[in-house]
Specification:
The structure is a single chain. By secondary structure, the protein is α+β, with helices and mostly antiparallel strands. The protein has seven helices and four strands. The protein has two domains: 5-93, Integrase, DNA-binding domain (Double Stranded RNA Binding Domain, 2-Layer Sandwich), CATH 3.30.160; 98-195, Tyrosine recombinase, N-terminal domain (DNA polymerase, domain 1). It has helices at residues 5-10, 57-72, 77-93, 98-109, 115-133, 143-151, 158-177, and strands at residues 15-20, 23-28, 31-40, 43-51. The protein has a four-stranded antiparallel β-sheet with strand order 1-2-3-4, covered by helices on one side. It is elongated and about 80 Å long.
Length: 211
Amino acid sequence: MGLTVKKVQRQKLPGKFADGHGLYLQVNGNARSWIFRFKRFGRTRWMGLGSVATYNLDEARELARKARQQIKQGVDPLLARQAQLAELKLAANNNKTFKECAAGYLAAHAGNWSAKAQDDFNAALNTYVYPHCGNVPVAAVDTPMVMQCLASIWLTKTPTAKRVRGRIEDILHWATVQGFRTGENPARWGKHLEFSLAKPSAKKSSRRIAL
C-alpha cells in the first residue's frame, strides 16, 4: 500500500517508507525528503529527488516516473542529472571573463608573491593579453586567441613571450579547476603550441664564411 498525503505529513519515525515503483519517503530527524531506488547493471542505487517541503506527493511521483522512463531508455537517471547540473554550472559561469579569472588567480597566489611580482604579472597581461581576450568569456578563449597574444612578440621578445604564455596557461588551468571552462588548455606548450610557434633562431655569426 502506497503513501498518502496524511501519512507523509504524520510520519515522524526515522527510516525509508515505500510509496511504490521505487519512490520512498526518507525521514531523518527533522529532514524529510523523497528518494528514488533503482537498479543499474544489477546494482541498487539511490537518487535524491528533493525535500518534502519542495515537492508534494504527486510531484514526487512524477519525478520518479520520469526517472523510470530514463531507465527504460537505457539512461542512468543519476548520471544524467549530474551531467545536467554540471552543464548548468558551466552555463552560469560562461560570462566569467578571462580578466576576471586572472584577478581570481592572482588573488589566490598573492600571499606567495612580492608586490613587484604582482605588478609585473599585471603589466604583462595589460600589455600583451587583455587587448586580445581580456573581456572574452574565459570559456571561449581558444588557441587562435592565445596565438594573437604571443605571435607579435615571440621572436622579438622571446623571454617575455614565454612568461606570458605560461601565465595564460596557469590562468586557464585555474579557470578550469574552478569550473569556468572545460577541455584542453589552449596555452599548453607540449604537443600543442610547440608546433605553432617558431623556435627562435640563434644569433647569426657576424663572421663571413668563405665560399
